[in-house]
């Protein structure tokens, strides 16, 4: 079986001293990848000189950004193509059979200032960093010979095939588009504007599942590269990548798996399309036309309103009805309210009752009847706690009661 791997057309041999990387990290969600803008060709060895401050402190060197492990029956690439090596010495030699971009991996809860690394042999990669790379720098850097490129913006880093950015002249415009997207995402999530760890989208010739999937990094098929690096295409709609970024905003305290796993992430897709891109929900996705929404609602009722049928687009309808009545500000207040809570229920029934109560208190209306019409397991104690609030009697599901 033959596998594809990335061969660099030009092999460079040079002494590369990175500019001092000033870090003040307090990473809570696992490792943070720190880009170097350098690439190792397949099988190529390089010698590294590392600061004593990060030796035997949980830091690692990573070669390669495609970290999905593949178990498909038909493979386009090898099952595993990245390499991680613990930093155990100030002098190290590394290589990866498949090659790849070079990263420093900072462990969780790390505070370090002034990290400087010397890479003796490597290949320069097309690399852009907001507020650092100038237009003149980029005009030369985008021609660098590495087959993989990285665009590092304020809150997200895109890793794409270099051919996707060779002709990208106005990278500052793309940076602004992505900065606005990420700002809009945290706006709905009611989180600080600066992410504690920048999101990453990495492109691969084959990924573990789907067209894209969430995580750190978010992984996407090759075709995705030509969407996320094109401002015109983004302006026309970009449901998939926003859907995955929405997954990364989901919190278990207001998630009810498996019902909402592929549902609430779409709130971010709808919000970004409408509030930033100016694309109505009916046009943002073919499953959100008025006709399809009504048909799903009628079918859910006709099939007996079973919670087992409440998922994906059917479940999203519940949230869209809330949004169309109470607006996005209500969702922001609900999400913000959860950051003030602790000791959450762990079962879906408990979490759904907490959500119904929280949303009701935010909007000043008793929504227990609305949620019950969607077959949520609302308890009597929840109804009693909300009984002092005026009920929402003319909700969209009332016509089927």
From TrEMBL:
InterPro entries: M60-like_N (IPR035423), Pep_M60_3 (IPR042279), Peptidase_M60_dom (IPR031161), TCAF (IPR051244)
Keyword Transmembrane helix: yes
Residue ranges of domain Peptidase M60 in the record: 31-327
GO molecular function, one term: transmembrane transporter binding
Transmembrane segments: 21-40
GO cellular component entries: plasma membrane
Biological process annotations from GO: positive regulation of protein targeting to membrane
Recorded superkingdom: Eukaryota
Keywords from the UniProt entry: Membrane, Transmembrane, Transmembrane helix
Protein name as annotated: Peptidase M60 domain-containing protein
Organism: Takifugu bimaculatus
